[in-house]
Write a structure and sequence with these properties.
The chain is α/β, with parallel strands linked by helices and 352 residues long. The chain is built from eleven helices and 16 strands. Strand 2 (32-33) and strand 3 (39-41) form a beta hairpin. Helix 10 packs antiparallel against helix 11 (338-348).
Length: 352
């Protein structure tokens, strides 16, 4: 993780999965504490984070909502694990334990442990497990979190939506809209990321979320996301048009209900198909490195850093490939050639 974070130009990463006993033991063995109470490994700063799956009934419906939880330190992490075990969550199954508690109740419990904890609903438009998802979500943020809504600093877009699709959604005004990578493997780190004002620390991450100090986000093309459009995979149907965000009619050739996607869902809730607000956070598109760089090397790129995996282009640009800062194009052209620089620029500007 640290090696790929450096390749991608990521200054601050979540540890992920701190609830899992084996992974937590590895983190505690390898992390070095910094002077300001954060954690460091391999030259990269880390914060303690995990994802929790809330499964509960509310308003006569079954609800399934994924929440990101960030903890300020090891004491909070161990208290959170104890609380989850008291709720009969199995922590050694996988890195995202299921919790039999409502989003409101779990948020209150986390903040009771340490008020510096942060809760962010993840991939909010995913039909299953998204806060606003068509299958098991809610109509609005306050429906999900009730009186804990003021304590939710941000929402996370997921791969199937982007900030522009969320800026006009009622109930999200005043909340930071962030994008994270949902990596699952090191090469996917940074496929979506958020750039904050400040330094790489838990304190400034918290300020960035709570005070909405988001400068820009780097976005996976939402059209590539599994849940961008409404439709049915087995039936081969997909619809970009606006339609109710609740479950729709059965797909005739599939015999099952359609999934309401992120694009029509956000369009309906916000009152228009596409929200293009001015003066908002800057949004840049990114693409998978193996799809952009691979054709220029005539091979599929693997998951290793260096060697037979990712070429050292990004490393030789000083990790600025993720940031798109001044001088980025010239660096890519110098180390990879004009064709590569043009290809990456087109992806960055959404011209694909």
């Amino acid at each position: 993780m640290a090696a790929w974070a450096k390749v991608k130009g990521i200054d601050l990463s979540s540890s992920a999965d701190f609830t899992h006993p084996a992974w937590l033991a590895e983190l505690e063995e390898n992390f070095t504490s910094t002077a300001d109470g954060d954690f460091e490994f391999g030259g990269v700063r880390f914060v303690l984070g995990t994802e929790l799956s809330c499964v509960f009934k509310q308003g006569g419906h079954s609800r399934r909502v994924h929440l990101l939880d960030f903890a300020p330190g090891s004491d909070a992490v161990h208290a959170i694990r104890e609380m989850l075990q008291n709720l009969n969550s199995k922590l050694n199954g996988d890195g995202r334990p299921t919790v039999g508690a409502s989003s409101t109740d779990l948020t209150a419990r986390l903040l009771d442990i340490d008020e510096a904890c942060m809760v962010v609903p993840a991939h909010i438009w995913t039909p299953w497990y998204g806060m606003l998802g068509s299958k098991s979500g809610f109509e609005a943020l306050d429906g999900c979190f009730g009186d804990m809504t003021p304590h939710i600093p941000a929402v996370e877009t997921g791969l199937s939506s982007d900030p522009e699709m969320n800026w006009g959604v009622p109930g999200l005004a005043g909340k930071a809209i962030v994008s994270f990578s949902d990596a699952h493997s090191p090469p996917n780190m940074g496929r979506e990321l958020t750039i904050f004002q400040g330094v790489a620390s838990y304190r400034d991450l918290a300020a960035g979320l709570r005070e909405n100090r988001v400068e820009r986000t780097l976005e996976f093309f939402p059209e590539e996301g599994k849940y961008h459009l409404s439709g049915h995979a087995s039936a081969g149907s997909a619809r970009p048009s606006a339609r109710p965000a609740r479950p729709g009619p059965d797909a005739p050739s599939a015999g099952g209900p359609d999934l309401g996607g992120a694009a029509p869902g956000s369009g309906i809730v916000s009152g228009r198909e596409q929200v293009r607000s001015r003066g908002k956070t800057s949004v840049h598109q990114v693409g998978a490195a193996h799809r952009i760089i691979g054709p220029h090397h005539g091979k599929r790129l693997g998951g290793q850093v260096g060697g037979s995996g990712l070429p050292p282009h990004l490393q030789r640009t000083g990790g600025r490939g993720a940031g798109f800062d001044q001088g980025w194009y010239g660096d890519l052209e110098r180390v990879g050639g004009e064709d590569l620089a043009i290809a990456v620029t087109k992806v960055r500007d959404g011209q694909v």
